[in-house]
Amino acid sequence: MRVLGVDPGLTRCGIGAVEGRPGAPLKLVAVGVVRTSADDELGARLVGIERGIEQWLDEVRPDAVAVERVFAQHNVRTVMGTAQAAGIALLCASRRGLPVALHTPSEVKAAITGSGTADKKQIGTMVTRLLRLAEMPKPADAADALALAICHVWRGGSQNRLAEALAKASRGRAS
């Protein structure tokens, strides 16, 4: 199963893809960020995020997409921007008929580190180990996107099997 993880944000939207299945070693497919300028107007930034995610979907061709579930923070402006970027990721994946899962930050932290309160450095360290990378993915948004993808591979259960079957069927029709 190939999963694209999206750590939504207006300035830096982390994107990372892994391939694997529960109980087997994971493989890094790609990792990076979609960036927009804080100086641009909101509409232009959302279009930039959409273009970036669409390009990643074209290149990575995931079987499923995992997006961080937006949670209430103290800064309403930050929450709104994060929610808008998450909505773009959901739209792009859904437009292609890809299964989309939302995972909370604490769920991802617990899956990756064993602790739902792990900090960014702990997540980055475990992502580096799990994917057998020479160095930690940077920025942290990219490592968080990989953590989302890993969490989904491990915890997707029946959703993973269904997504795999659908992806194989659609690839068969495209040939």
User: Helical proportion?
Assistant: 40-55%
Kindly provide the name of the CATH class: Alpha Beta
**Assigned CATH superfamily:** Ribonuclease H-like superfamily/Ribonuclease H
Q: State the assembly state of the protein chains.
A: single chain
Tell me the count of domains.
Answer: 1
Distance between the termini: 19 Å
Question: What order do the helices and strands follow?
Answer: EEEHEHEHHHH
Principal-axes geometry comes out as globular
Describe the structure.
This protein is α/β, with parallel strands linked by helices and 175 residues long. It has a single domain (2-174), classed as Nucleotidyltransferase, domain 5 (2-Layer Sandwich). Helix content is 53%, strand content 18%. It has a five-stranded mixed beta sheet. A hairpin with a 4-residue loop joins strand 1 and strand 2. Helix 1 crosses helix 2, helix 3 (105-113) packs across helix 5 and helix 4 (120-130) crosses helix 5 (140-155). The model has no long low-confidence stretch (mean pLDDT 90).
Write the topology of this structure.
Elements (H helix, E strand, L loop, with lengths): L1 E6 L4 E8 L7 E9 L6 H19 L3 E5 L7 H20 L4 E4 L1 H9 L6 H11 L9 H16 L2 H17 L1
Parallel strand pairs: 1-4, 4-5
Antiparallel strand pairs: 1-2, 2-3
Helix pairs in contact: 1-2, 3-5, 4-5
